[in-house]
Amino acid sequence: MEIKKLLEKAIYYLNDSEYTNPYYEARLILSGLLDKDLSYIISHEDENLSENISNKYLDILKKRSDGWPLAYILGETEFYGNKFYVDEGVLIPRRDTEISVETISKIISKNKIKNILEIGSGTGIVSISLAKENEDIEFDCIDISDKAISNTKKNIKFHNLSNVRVFKSDIYSNVCKKYDLIYSNPPYIKREEISKLQKEISYEPITALDGGVDGLIFYRRIIKDLDEYLSKNGFLVLEIGYDQKEDIYQLLSNYNHSCIKDLSSLDRVIIASKGEIDV
Ligand code: GLN
Q1: Ligand 1: centre distance to CA 209 (Å)
Q2: Is the N or C terminus of the chain more exposed, i.e. has fewer CB atoms within 10 Å?
Q3: Is the CB of 189 under 6 A from ligand 1?
Q4: CB 188 near ligand 1, within 6 Å
Q5: Same domain, 104 and 242
Q6: Per the confidence metrics, is the pTM higher than 0.70?
């Protein structure tokens, strides 16, 4: 079937799903299947594809119309201008998380930071994005999920980094030193709200989303033992849900704190430190 015709099928399968951009997604799927870049797909719309490829493509579109996330279908996504592998069973990077990278970059530019711990690294996007630009900083990524650890490893290898390590740990259970900066985007959704989220999220690992009854369980654990793992005047950076700032400020009553909003003007990243916060 011709590429043009195959793209039209995307309208048929994907048009009534509010979270898709059918032509764009269809082009990405085809470019993955043909191993060509997007501009090739756009400039070869009359090319006839084999029945085998056409059928594979139509199968993928059907899965996609059931809500199967595009990042899992393609096995990769783009974050902060770089390509990252995304394995099924690992949380898919969110655009909002780029604010965390920007916030940490600002802290790095104004303070002497020699090492960073990321709690719950998932695909590893945050540490790896920062490690590419900060070769003199050591990054330790931890996660409780073996799938996340293997996904982070794959991305470290793909980006060819020697300043990022990853190991298994349940929050601090296997952490044995202090860090100048600790970052986490832990599971923070209230348990009762998870079932109300869009269909796509049901394909993602619930352990990466479920923050317990009040959504705060992991923030509490991270903050409780923080003094033991954070250097003097070090920084804690947390990605949070839009309505969690006040609750988390209460947990951080012994620290100075400040909050950065995302592009939709929602509270998104908290910075805490016993020293000065100048961001
Ligand atoms: N921001 C994610 C979402 O709304 C949640 C990620 C998390 O729990 N840390 O899907």
Answers
A1: 6
A2: N
A3: yes
A4: yes
A5: yes
A6: yes
Q: What is the pLDDT of residues 87-97, one digit of tens each?
A: 999 999 999 99
CATH of residue 13's domain is 1.10.8.10
CATH code, domain with 99: 3.40.50.150
**Residue 101 included in any domain:** yes
Q: Which residue is closest in CA terms to ligand 1's atom 9? A: 187
Residue-wise DSSP of the chain: -BHHHHHHHHHHHHTT-TT--HHHHHHHHHHHHHT--HHHHHHTTTPBPPHHHHHHHHHHHHHHHTT--HHHHHTEEEETTEEEE--TTSPPP-GGGHHHHHHHHHHHHHS---EEEEES-TT-HHHHHHHHH-TTSEEEEEES-HHHHHHHHHHHHHTT-SSEEEEE-STTTT--S-EEEEEE----B-HHHHTTS-GGGGGS-GGGTB--TTS-HHHHHHHHTHHHHEEEEEEEEEE--TT-HHHHHHHTTTSEEEEEE-TTS-EEEEEEESS----
The atom of ligand 1 lying closest to the CA of 210 is 8
Site to probe by mutation for ligand 1, drawn from 95, 183, 185, 216 as the one with most ligand atoms within 8 Å of Cβ, is: 185
109 in a structural domain: yes
Please write the tens of the pLDDT for every residue from 146-204. 999 999 999 999 999 999 999 999 999 999 999 999 999 999 999 999 888 878 899 99
Domain boundary (66, 100, 116) is at 66
- Report CA(152)–ligand 1 centroid distance (Å): 18
Q: Do residues 111 and 152 both lie within one domain?
A: yes
168 and 54 belong to one structural domain: no
Q: Domain of residue 46: give its range.
A: 3-66
Residue where one domain finishes, among candidates 66, 101, 121: 66
Domain count for the chain, please give it.
2
29 lines ligand 1 (CB under 6 A): no
Say if 154 falls within a structural domain. yes
